[in-house]
Amino acid sequence: MLTAQVSKLWVLLALTVISLFLAFSVGAIPLPVWEILRQQATDLQHTVFFEIRAPRVLLAAGVGAMLGLSGACLQGLFRNPLADPTLIGVSAGAALGAIAMIVLGDLIDLPAGWAAYAVPLAAVAGALLVTSFLYGFAAWFGQFSIVTLLLVGIAVNALSTVGIGAFEYLSDDRQLRNLVFWMMGSFGRAGWDTVIPALLVMSAAGILLIRQGRQLDLLQLGEAEAAHLGINVGRLKRVVILMSAVAVGAGVALSGIIGFVGLIVPHLVRLMIGPLHRYLLAGSLLLGAGLMVLADLLARTVIVPAELPVSLVTSALGAPFFLWLIARMRRR
Amino acid sequence: MSICLHDVSFAYRQDTLVNDVSTEFAAGQVSIIVGPNGAGKTTLLKLISGELKCGAGNISYHGRKLTDMSLLEQALARAVMTQASHIVFDFLVKDILAMGWVRPNQGMMKTQMQAVIEQCHIADYLHRPFNSLSGGEQQRVQFARALLQVCPMAPLTQPAFLLLDEPTSSLDVAHELMLLELVQDAAAQGIGVIIVMHDLNLASRYADNIYLLCKGALIASGSPGEVLEGPRLSGVYGTPLTVEHHGGLNRLMVYAQ
Q1: Among residues A46, A236, B115, B172, which is most buried (max CB within 10 A)?
Q2: Looking at beta carbons, which residues of chain B come within 8 Å of A218?
Q3: At CA A159, angle to CA A154 and CA A164, rounded to 5?
Q4: Which residues are CB-contacts of A42 (< 8 A; sequence separation ≥ 6)?
Q5: Rounded Cα–Cα distance for residues B102 and A311 (Å)
Q6: What residues in A contact B91, CB-CB < 8 Å?
Q7: Residue B95 forms contact with A (CB below 8 Å)
Q8: Do B85 and A225 make contact, defined as CB atoms within 8 angstroms?
Q9: Upper half-sphere CA count for residue B43 (Cβ side, 13 Å)
Q10: Separation between Cα atoms, residue B1 and residue B48, nearest integer Å
Q11: What ipTM was predicted for this assembly?
Q12: Which of A217, A229, A232 sits opposite B149 (nearest CB)?
């Protein structure tokens, strides 16, 4: 049985690698990946690959991996299958943080070296604020019912929308163009200068999150029960909340809000390899990366030379899935 | 080889829930805590498990203070079975059972799991989703999980304890007896069992020692014969109760008058 789950993880890894290869090759300009790597391609192909395609695809993979992983972790932590970073407002919190920094950042005199990281840091802070607030709210009520969590998510999203609207009103033309980018969600502006630090931060958060698998399994028995089994529940909560916020915030800072990936991916992986977080977390990371890369591929090839916002693609796929999920839960 | 309580008290806001309790729970025996609603039974069990911290006094396992033990050491010293809690995701029974294995050596897990599976008669539904089981079956799986956590292993370490909070609350009489037989088997293996329970007749049948609580204080403790006395129970429960020896069953029975 253990080997069955591990072999399914290998299948997921293979699918992710294939998705990456497809995304590297296909686009407005088709790229022969092998020839580029063997330095046999034209200069144009070389430039498009290294300056445009590769950072974009890797960012999509990173953001998708983190949304899938943190979705699985938050669902485990809240013991609630509808906890998705976007639905419950974590992504909106991150976007609000980022937007506040874009608009207000000009007013603060930041040292030159810091300016590049101010927006991502503000995004992480916003995500952290929302996640801690949700957890505090949940702790206050004992355990969130599914409906309560979603309703609180609606309220948090609405509040963030108010904040975003206010900042739109305050912003000048240049800032407004930046803001619109957040609302759409896109990997179109990926460049190495921001993608590399983001991927490093995501890797660190991802490693920490993946290591919580067994503890999240035991948490499903209940908080007191997990403590009886030797789990430091307080520490587990802090790690999951903090690292999910970092992982989602770093992604939102570069790509804007991209919905439903954190919801769909853990469910698909559960259908495939079961609910044990030991395997679920790694599986969600892989499938999240693969799906996001493919969604972005679709977004940038379906109406060449223009492109769709990737969040449009994920929401178009995710919203019907969400409805199916609710119908399935009602039947039980 | 025992759990010792020294002058243990616990208060929540203005209410003293456990008041100056000093006693001992022996390994290899079934100890049953009884008392009216609100007597502090569950609170006392939570203090013994370490879920709540004593307001005053201390609790030691085999002479070692609970507060000096790490979470993992506590997990090896005692397992707790709380009243059934809902599990959201579709775990298989064998997944739930395996969660009871807190030791680092995975190699031993399989044999110990097999032993517990046979002892608790849950082999038939190991591969079914936990949520598809009946209340009685779920209760038995949770018991098996707790048993796996504290199963005695060679080289024999210090005997561990099983703490059960109303383990039979959702069971019919046949399943109730089946679970308590399993409890007796565990005690026979050297495990100390502490149960919080309402039914005085079941307590009289299965307990080696009964602990009678009232308003947070320990009123009496000892063998069923020593603790179960009509006038004392009537006073504690505030309703007339009679205790008689049933010759055919050879044990004490408690009746409401």
Answers
A1: A236
A2: 99
A3: 120
A4: none
A5: 43
A6: 220, 274-276
A7: yes
A8: yes
A9: 25
A10: 15
A11: 0.90
A12: A229
Determine if the peptide bond prior to A30 is cis (ω within 30°): no
Amino acid, single-letter form, for residue B139: Q
Sequence-distant (6+) residues with CB within 8 A of B182 are: B119, B120, B140, B143, B147
Token pair, residue B69, equals 């033990």
Q: How confident is the model at residue B37 (pLDDT cuts 50, 70, 90)?
A: very high
**Measured between CB atoms, does B168 come within 8 Å of chain A?**
no
Instruction: Supply the DSSP symbol for A29.
Output: S
Chain A residues with CB under 8 Å of B85 CB are: 221-222, 225
pLDDT by residue (tens digit) across A61-94? 999 999 999 999 999 988 888 888 887 788 888 8
How many CB contacts within 8 angstroms connect chain A with chain B? Answer: 57
Cα–Cα distance list, A167 to A156, A197, B51, B213 (Å): 17, 27, 47, 62
Q: Å from A132 to nearest chain B CA?
A: 22
Query: Global pTM?
Result: 0.88
Residue A248 has pLDDT above 60, yes or no: yes
Burial (CB < 10 A; 0-12, 13-18, 19+), residue A95, is: buried
Taken in order of first residue, the domains within chain A and their CATH numbers are: 2-331 (1.10.3470.10)
A109 φψ region: left (φ > 0), alpha (ψ -120 to 50), beta (else): beta
Name the one residue in this structure whose structure tokens are 């739930």: B96
**B120: its two tokens:** 């608790």
User: Kindly report the CA angle at B143 between B139 and B148, in degrees rounded to 5?
Assistant: 150
The single-letter DSSP state of residue A229 is T
The single-letter code of the amino acid at B205 is R
Q: Could you tell me which residue, A150 or A238, shows the higher pLDDT?
A: A238
- Closest residue of chain A to B146, computed from CA coordinates: A229
Q: What is the distance between the alpha carbons of residues B202 and A167, in angstroms, rounded to a whole number?
A: 68
The string over A132-159, giving b where at least 16 C-beta atoms fall within 10 Å of a residue's C-beta and e elsewhere, is bebbeebeeeebbebeebbebbeebbee
Distance of CA B211 to the CA centre of its chain: 12
